[in-house]
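W.,

You were right to be curious about this one. When I first looked at the sequence I had no strong expectations either way, so I just let the prediction run and decided to look at it fresh. Below is the sequence, 311 residues in total, followed by the output.
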Amino acid sequence: MSTATDPGLEKRPGPGAAPPRPAARSPRVPLLRVLPLAPAVVLLLLFLAGPIAYCAYIAFTDLQLTGQAEDSFVGFENFTTAFGDDAFLNAVWLTLVFTVISALVGQNTLGLALAALMQRASKPVRTLVGGIVITAWVLPEVVAGFLLYAFFRREGTLNAVLDWLHLPTQNWLFTLPILAVSFANVWRGTAFSMLVYSAALNEIPKEITEAAEVDGAGGWRRLWHITLPMIRRSIGTNLMLITLQTLSVFGLIWVMTRGGPGGRSQTLPLFMYEEAFQKSMIGYGTAVALLLLVVGSLFSVVYLRLLRTEV
């Protein structure tokens, strides 16, 4: 009679025995997974992290373009000078006004409205409106600035229309410069929000809106209780992107007003350019640029935290 036992039974651990240790993974497997990302990481360090680190260093020096043999470390002097400078505080306030009017209210609201209207419009109307709006978006910033300058100047298109309607005219670029450049940015950038919201609205199941309509919910109630909650993440993403884009707008305002008159349309990018390249104060201008980067980061953190919350 054979006394051989089943090999599978011999390998089973006893009731009090420790579980078998997992086989050690080869250290080459994670390395092979990370290796394809190495070129992208190197490029980011070289062209993104490197310049940011160098700018952060310059912001703590008194580097100038002309009239200086060598720069020296000045600590937080540039930042304290900025917060004590009325022109800087005015630029901060105008940047917030410009961002709120042209991005948070203008582009976001108008983009959502156009996307919702185009859902119900006929194909020729969608093609015409979409082509006009996207054309304004793809125009170079300088070209768009010249077009809007011609529209708002004293002898421009807007005053010609108002004069034809027997309404009072004015020099919009002198009396309301920040509103003029804000409208220009809305005209140019609304297409991006419209495309984002068009894609989001197409993802909403039609059965939900049809059921709400059968239950007697009006258009505003469907918008508030169904549409907006279901595209909440698209709203947050769109707000974050257009806010960051608006904070960095330079060419449009420079072409239209150059920050004037009297600094009444001078946002932080224009103030930074004037201090760094027109007044040759590279250290101070870079400190302002670093503060603008911090402002953009704060907006991003707020939007990302809003995106984490569930509906």
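Here's what jumped out at me. The longest helix spans residues 86-120. And, maybe more interesting for your project: The chain has a mean pLDDT of 84.

Coffee later to discuss?

I.
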